[in-house]
From TrEMBL:
InterPro entries: B4GAT1 (IPR043189)
Sorted UniProt keywords: Glycoprotein, Glycosyltransferase, Golgi apparatus, Manganese, Membrane, Metal-binding, Signal-anchor, Transferase, Transmembrane, Transmembrane helix
Name assigned to this protein: Beta-1,4-glucuronyltransferase 1
Species assigned in the record: Oryctes borbonicus
Compartments (UniProt record): Golgi apparatus membrane
Coiled coil feature spans: none
Location, primary (coarse class): Golgi
Transmembrane found in the keyword field: yes
Pathway recorded for this protein: Protein modification; protein glycosylation
Reactions catalysed according to its record: 3-O-[beta-D-Xyl-(1->4)-Rib-ol-P-Rib-ol-P-3-beta-D-GalNAc-(1->3)-beta-D-GlcNAc-(1->4)-(O-6-P-alpha-D-Man)]-Thr-[protein] + UDP-alpha-D-glucuronate = 3-O-[beta-D-GlcA-(1->3)-beta-D-Xyl-(1->4)-Rib-ol-P-Rib-ol-P-3-beta-D-GalNAc-(1->3)-beta-D-GlcNAc-(1->4)-(O-6-P-alpha-D-Man)]-Thr-[protein] + UDP + H(+)
Named cofactor requirement(s): Mn(2+)
Transmembrane segments: 12-32
One Gene Ontology cellular component: Golgi membrane
């Protein structure tokens, strides 16, 4: 009896020792196993990076982030049957919640070449961002996906706030996706523009030739971004138009209080900035730069009618009423070719997609808004900026060629607008553009 009790005691002691040793091993394993999610997000740029154990399973990463959300066999065709769209193929982690929290969504569009500007936009705009992006074929799509992956891993504001929508020419839809995720571990998170320039060297000559012969479909892209916003108001911009700090929250408060009883569009003045300066922190800083010749109204030297009706002199002399947004003045000298960046409810006329490329893209949509009876109100003290003081010498020849092609299409457009709205406030039916 005593021997049996001793054997049971020895067996229990042995089990206790084994369990203790097992728990110690498990604790050591959890303490020293690398955290993959942190390693991926905090990728730096070491001289010769070791193989990242968190990026080994490339097939799972591609299937989880691309094939499920971006099935190239699906998508939808645009109204002209020339482009294939993929809505919300990559959704920001906070994008759905931000659309519920804010009354206004920033809608923007970009080709691959300018996508680096999205970093600064997302850092300035705390609300939801709907971004449509364009790829001209296999190689450009793979580079685009790689660059968006890089942005999402390196820039938390892009990862959280931006929902991406894709447009591809129907005749050039890729059959598969083939990217090397491990390249990201060699990229510098602090240099998105330089990183993109390096990637663009891998665009094929065939794709470059195709893009040289086919204009970028700006209005298609604007409509795609705008219609994927989920808010009452939409703020439509181009990707290189950078909003002033805290603008999303200030606009949200303003739009909650405003009671527009007509068709209203709220214009945000746009300035060009000398690339040597720091982005102005407020309106006073912007005006100091303007007084020194380091900032000026957008396109003032290239095409003054682009923003002239905003009346920048009146805006600059408006006395600030604290930091809250208020209406500086009403646009009373509206003229054709006016292209303001504005906030409006999402019942405004769409951008006409017959105008492709440069010229007559934004101004025709704003012109139809004016004919339809919209009033334009200039807001203060908020603003937007575009980097670089543009000159006519920097204007490429292809822009004028595309502008001439779109000018030929305007005659039919203005007749359709007249029939649709029954008004011709600028007497455009009597004018011949040439």
């Amino acid at each position: 009896m005593v021997q049996r009790a001793c054997r049971l005691w020895n067996l229990s002691a042995t089990c206790l020792i084994v369990l203790t040793a097992y728990n110690i091993l498990l604790t050591l394993k959890f303490m020293y196993t690398p955290d993959c999610s942190k390693n991926i997000i905090q990728v730096q740029n070491p001289p010769e990076p070791p193989r990242n154990p968190c990026l080994n399973n490339i097939d799972v990463f591609e299937k989880g982030d691309f094939s499920v959300k971006l099935d190239l066999r699906l998508g939808r065709l645009d109204n002209t049957l020339k482009y294939k769209y993929f809505d919300n193929f990559w959704v920001g982690e906070s994008y759905p919640e931000l659309n519920e929290r804010y009354t206004v969504c920033l809608a923007t569009q970009s080709s691959l070449e300018r996508l680096y500007s999205l970093v600064e936009v997302a850092n300035h705009w705390s609300g939801p961002i709907s971004a449509s992006v364009f790829a001209a074929g296999d190689d450009e799509l793979n580079l685009l996906l790689l660059y968006i992956t890089y942005l999402r891993q390196c820039q938390s504001n892009v990862r959280n706030r931006v929902s991406f929508h894709l447009a591809i020419p129907k005749s050039r839809v890729p059959r598969s996706i083939d990217i090397d995720i491990e390249q990201i571990s060699t990229m510098d998170c602090n240099r998105p523009e330089v990183t993109l320039k390096q990637m663009l060297k891998h665009v094929s000559s065939e794709t470059t030739r195709w893009k040289g012969k086919n204009a970028y479909p700006q209005n298609h892209m604007r409509n795609l971004a705008r219609k994927n916003c989920q808010t009452k108001f939409v703020y439509l911009t181009d990707v290189d138009i950078i909003p002033s700090y805290r603008q999303a929250d200030e606009l949200h408060r303003f739009l909650q209080k405003t009671d527009c009883r007509t068709k209203c569009a709220y214009v945000i003045p746009t300035y060009e900035l000398d690339e040597r300066v720091v982005f102005p922190s407020n309106k006073s800083d912007l005006l100091r730069l303007a007084n020194k010749g380091l900032a000026r109204p957008f396109h003032q030297k290239v095409f003054i009618f682009n923003q002239f009706a905003t009346n920048f002199s009146k805006w600059e002399n408006t006395i600030n009423q604290g930091s809250d947004i208020h209406i500086s003045h009403t646009v009373t000298n509206f003229e054709f070719l006016y292209e303001p960046f504005y906030v409006a409810m999402d019942d405004a006329p769409p951008h006409d997609e017959r105008f492709v490329g440069y010229g007559y893209t934004r101004n025709t949509q704003v012109y139809e808004m004016f004919v339809a009876g919209y009033d334009f109100f200039v807001l203060s003290p908020i603003f937007t900026c575009h980097w670089g003081l543009s000159t006519k010498r920097s204007k490429p020849a292809w822009r004028e060629q595309q502008n001439n092609e779109n000018r030929k299409k305007f005659d039919n457009f203005k007749h359709e607008v007249f029939v649709k709205h029954g008004r011709d406030p600028l007497n455009m039916m009597l004018r011949k553009l040439g």
